[in-house]
Amino acid sequence: MIPLLRASEKLPIMATVRLFATLPKKLLLLLMALIVVVHSEAANTNNVYQPCADTKIQRSDGFTFGIAFSSRDSFFANQSHQLSPCDRRLSLASLNSQLAVFRPRVDQISLLSINTSDFFPDAFGGYMVAFAGRKYAARSQPAFVANSTFIVTSFTLVLEFQKGRLQNLYWKRDGCASCSGKSRSSYVCLNNQDCAIRTSSCRNRGGNVDCSLGIQLTFSGTDKHLSALNSWYEVKNLRQYSLYNVYSNLRDSLTGQYNRFF
Ligand SMILES: *[C@@H]1O[C@H](CO)[C@@H](O)[C@H](O)[C@H]1NC(C)=O
Ligand SMILES: *[C@@H]1O[C@H](CO)[C@@H](O)[C@H](O)[C@H]1NC(C)=O
Ligand SMILES: *[C@@H]1O[C@H](CO)[C@@H](O)[C@H](O)[C@H]1NC(C)=O
C-alpha cells in the first residue's frame, strides 16, 4: 500500500499566519486543500512556507505555491500584460478574489482537491492562476474554471524548475479525453480543450455530481543539485487515467468524474 499523507499535516499553521500578514488582507485564504503525497517520506530542506517568496528546491522538499481565483481581467495590468498575483499593482485584494495555498512535495505526483460545496468559483470571476515567487515570480496563464453554466473540475498543472528555481507553471490540457463516455446531458467539451460539467448537474445546484476541483500536479526540470525531476515523465508514460488508481483511498473525496476510474 502506498502511504498517503494529508495536507493539513504538512502545512504548519505558522505559514497561514505569515501569509495573512504579507498578502493583502481581503485576499482570503482558502485552505480547503487536500494534498496527497505518493512515495515515501524524506527530509524537507525548504523553509520558505509562503507563496510570494523566492526559494530553491531539491527533490523531496516541500514547495509552497498559490492558486488565485478571480476574473480573467483582474490578472492583467492595463488589460495587456499579465502580472503575478503577488504583484501589488494588480490589487487583487480589492477585487473579488480567493486564494488557495498548497505545499506538495517536489517530484511526487500529487492530487490537490478544492471542495466546492461552500466555494463556487464562478462567484469569484471563474478563472484561476497558479503562482509562486516574488523577484523570480512565475505564474500560469489564467485557466477557465467556471461560469454560471459550466464548471471544469479536472486539471493537470506542471511545475517546471531549473536548478531548483521555479521557472514556469502551465496547465496541461487533455483535449476533452476525460469527457468520453460521459452523459451528454451533464458533460460538455468546451473549445476542444476542457471537459466541463453543466453546473445544473452539481450538488447544491440541483444535481448530484460532486463538482469539487481536482488538480493533478507534476514536476519537470532540475533541482538545485541538477537532479532531474521525473514525475512529469511518469505521468506521460502512464496511461492517463491509470494514475487515479493510486488515489483509491480518496474515493469519497473526489469528484464523480474520477470515480469511474477506480
Ligand atoms: C498602466 O498604465 C498607466 C498609464 O498608462 C501606467 O502609468 C502604469 O505604469 C501601467 N501599469 C503597468 C503595470 O504597466
Ligand atoms: C460560459 O462559458 C462557456 C464557454 O466559454 C460559454 O460558451 C458560455 O456562453 C458561458 N456562459 C455564460 C453565462 O457566460
Ligand atoms: C465537501 O464538503 C462537504 C460539506 O463539508 C462534504 O459533505 C463533502 O463530502 C466534501 N466533498 C469533498 C470532495 O471533500
From TrEMBL:
<keyword id="KW-0732">Signal</keyword>
<feature type="signal peptide">
    <location>
        <begin position="1"/>
        <end position="42"/>
    </location>
</feature>
<dbReference type="GO" id="GO:0046872">
    <property type="term" value="F:metal ion binding"/>
</dbReference>
<dbReference type="InterPro" id="IPR044248">
    <property type="entry name" value="DPH3/4-like"/>
</dbReference>
<dbReference type="GO" id="GO:0017183">
    <property type="term" value="P:protein histidyl modification to diphthamide"/>
</dbReference>
<protein>
    <recommendedName>
        <fullName>Expp1 protein</fullName>
    </recommendedName>
</protein>
